Hints:
Blueprint: E1 5-9, H1 13-25, E2 29-33, H2 36-42, E3 49-54, H3 62-72, E4 78-82, H4 87-95, E5 100-103, H5 108-139, H6 144-153, H7 159-166, H8 170-184, H9 189-199
Parallel strand pairs: 1-2, 1-3, 3-4, 4-5
Domain HTH luxR-type: 135-200
Protein name: Response regulator
Keywords: DNA-binding, Phosphoprotein
Amino acid sequence: MLSPLIRLVDDEPQLRKAQAFVLQLAGFDTREFESAEDFLEKDDHERPGCVVLDIRMGGMSGLQCQEEMNARGIRLPVLFLSGHGDIHMAVMALKRGAADFLQKPVPAEKLVEACRTLVDWDATSREKARERARAKQLLAKLSPREREVAQLVATGLPNKAVADRLGVSEQNIKIHRSNIYAKLALRSAVEIRSLLDSAGADEKKNPLITLQVLPEDVGGGDSS
């Protein structure tokens, strides 16, 4: 399995290098990109980790990059960095699925903490995605009727109640139930419920939002 990578996307070379130094000291692998276009073209988006993305850059902005990531199905969690006064942009970024938004200059400890949170969340999200794919693959072995029976059995209903719901004999349900257990390699209704839950698990975009709005931030500004 590939180790996590923190992508640093910013058009200020000195800032990128300072961030990379701090994160590397904390044990992270990093890669620097001088623009959003460079990141979208050259990054291995399948590698786990996160993106530290400047919201104001020459060329494609951070928000435009985020929009393009969403369009391409790039699910890496995004930590936006910006100058004073971009709260309205922060709200827009969070609505589009950004995980966090911090103002420059970001203390080293806070940057490391935020990245560690997003890297951990990404690892958990990818594991859940693998579990979801495995569960769906198993459930695909069932016939439409077996799937229907499995969903009712998972609620805890006894065979007779399931049979009444579907208008079939109790013996018929017993046969279906036996086939379901065999196909899914499971032994109880509780395990079926767990498998169905895994197959239908929702992907959550925002693992932890730590945006802090200070009184002096309200009213905007254009510095970055």
